[in-house]
Amino acid sequence: MDAIDRAIINNLQGGFPLSERPYAEAAASLGLDEDELIRRLEILLAQGTLTRFGPLYHAERLGGALTLAAMKPPPDDFERVARIVNGFPEVAHNYAREHEFNMWFVLATEWPERIGEVISEIEKATGYAVYNMPKLEEFFVGLRFEA
User: Fold this and answer.
1) Inter-residue contact 73 to 128 (CB < 8 Å)
2) How far is it, in rounded angstroms, from Cα 83 to Cα 86?
3) Which residue segment(s) compose the domain that 9 sits in?
4) Considering the entire predicted model, what is its pTM?
5) What is the pLDDT of residue 124?
6) In the list 12, 50, 103, 146, which could disulfide-bond 44, CB 3.0-4.6 Å?
């Protein structure tokens, strides 16, 4: 990442304009033109530097729910299980960890009771237990890069 990419990530985390030309407005605030901002975002996504670019909704405020879940698939079955888990639209993101619980993912559902249903569906589809770890307290952490 260069200084411009870091500035893009730092600035756009705080919000995105709601206007007829939001990319143009965001680009102008960064001293870029609209096409350059879009091109850089596409590259950051293609490289995996950014895994997604879009709105973040507070599921609970909208009447839904979210939870952190973990699994312990054996390493030789990890990829198969990850494909199945990632196939559920309720899986917000999924990541591997070097730990007994080697797969962690966030479930976001439209209704609170759907959390248990999705967990059951994932267990049935994968053959492995899903450990539900609902949040007890919420923390907000920002990520900023030095320019």
Assistant:
1) yes
2) 5
3) 3-47
4) 0.65
5) 98
6) 50
Confidence grade of residue 105 (pLDDT, cut at 50, 70, 90): very high
Total residue count of the chain as it appears in this document: 147
How would you write the chain as a 3-class SS string? Answer: CCHHHHHHHHHHCCCCCCCCCHHHHHHHHCCCCHHHHHHHHHHHHHHCCCCCCCCCCCHHHHCCEEEEEEECCCHHHHHHHHHHHHCCCCEEEEEECCCCCCEEEEEEECCCCHHHHHHHHHHHHHCCCCEEECCCCCCCCCCCCCC
Q: Judge whether 147 lies within some domain.
A: no
In a domain, 89, yes or no: yes
Work out how many domains the chain is built from and give that number. 2
CATH number of the domain to which 66 belongs: 3.30.70.3460
Of residues 118 and 49, which shows the higher confidence score? 118
33 and 77 together in one domain: no
Determine contact, residues 132/67, Cβ cutoff 8 Å.
yes
